[in-house]
Amino acid sequence: MPTIMKTIADLHMHTNHSDGTLNPTELARLAKAQKVDAVALTDHDTVTGIGELVEETNRLGLEAIVGVELSANFRPGTLHILGYGFDTEGPIRDKLFGFQKAREERNPRILERLKGMGMPMTLAQVKEISRAQGQVGRPHIAQTMMRMGYVASYEEAFERFLTKGAPAYVPKATWGAQECIDMIHESGGVAVIAHPVQMKLQGLELESRIGELVEMGLDGLEVVHPDHGPQDQGLFQSLAERFGLLTTGGSDFHGDHKPGIQLGQGRPPYIFLEKLRERIRKRRH
Ligand code: AMP
Ligand code: FE
Ligand code: FE
Ligand code: ZN
């Protein structure tokens, strides 16, 4: 039998366990249909979708590796850290409960504000309408506001009410970059900056802040991402080389929440996954 070359490893995607719209089984089937050879599910702050995903990828003969996306405190932009290849039953498991608790405290406060503005809805309605599993956040609330006729679109819900600085915005407790990197390492994984363009830094400032993250133990930079133009991609590739970092890539697929994005978009090369696995093996020794 001829060997079939693997070409695409999409290492960044979301399900309805965080802010995506497909469930893990549907996501695996779509990956197969899109001719993606390997996937990493990187839901925000949770790993509860991975079991179901792996069951389906095994059935379909697709490769899958464990992942998660954490949000760290950062200025001026945002810093999202992807974790890969860790033990989901390791110490990270309880730490993720902390992230979930922060949401449980925040969601009722957002709903309280919306109610005060004449848009009542219960958390149960939000879960039901958005098909949320596990992590409930602003995307689910936005979708519910639209379905209940309070706003005309998902974007309007964010722009008028939910985005930072808008009247129903409530900040959420977040963790420092060092804590995020440590919790991934402690459970045997590697840590990669997601869509580094969103840090909103340039030139020397960008280099020095990445240098600080390398000191904290950072392992890689996500180079292929829909938010990166060819110039960004070249820049992050060369920074990765300079700092001895891994390079990764993914579509950041969210289903209907980001309708322009296809699974496997940008065709992140399979070789990225091979290098990532090498690093995970080293870390575990
Ligand atoms: P949360 O974790 O509940 O604060 O929600 C963060 C998520 O909301 C992000 O991952 C995006 O999917 C979505 N989001 C944040 N800001 C906007 C915006 N201005 N427009 C649309 N979606 C947004
Ligand atoms: Fe997201
Ligand atoms: Fe992100
Ligand atoms: Zn993401």
Could you describe the 3D structure shown?
- With 285 residues, the chain is an alpha/beta fold.
- The protein has helices at residues 24-33, 50-60, 92-116, 123-130, 138-147, 154-162, 177-186, 203-215, 230-243, 270-284; strands spanning 9-10, 38-41, 63-72, 79-84, 190-193, 220-224, 246-249.
- It folds into 2 domains: 9-88 and 175-284, TIM Barrel (Alpha-Beta Barrel), CATH 3.20.20.140; 96-162, DNA polymerase, domain 1 (Orthogonal Bundle).
- The chain is 44% helix and 12% strand.
- The chain has a 7-stranded mixed sheet with strand order 1-2-3-4-5-6-7.
- β3 (63-72) and β4 form a beta hairpin.
- The longest helix has 25 residues, at 92-116.
- The radius of gyration is 19 Å and the shape is globular.
- The relative contact order is 0.17.
- The model has no long low-confidence stretch (mean pLDDT 95).
- Bound molecules: adenosine monophosphate, fe (iii) ion (FE) (2 copies) and zinc ion.
- Residues 69, 80, 194-195 line the site of one fe (iii) ion.
- The low-confidence runs, each spanning 5 or more residues with pLDDT under 50, are none
As a percent range, the share of helical residues equals 40-55%
Main beta-sheet annotation: 7 strands, mixed
- Rounded average pLDDT: 95
Distance between the termini: 35 Å
Q: Find the CATH topology of the largest domain.
A: TIM Barrel
Structural class: alpha/beta
Q: Give the radius of gyration.
A: 19 Å
- The global form is globular
**Cofactors and ligands:** adenosine monophosphate, fe (iii) ion, zinc ion
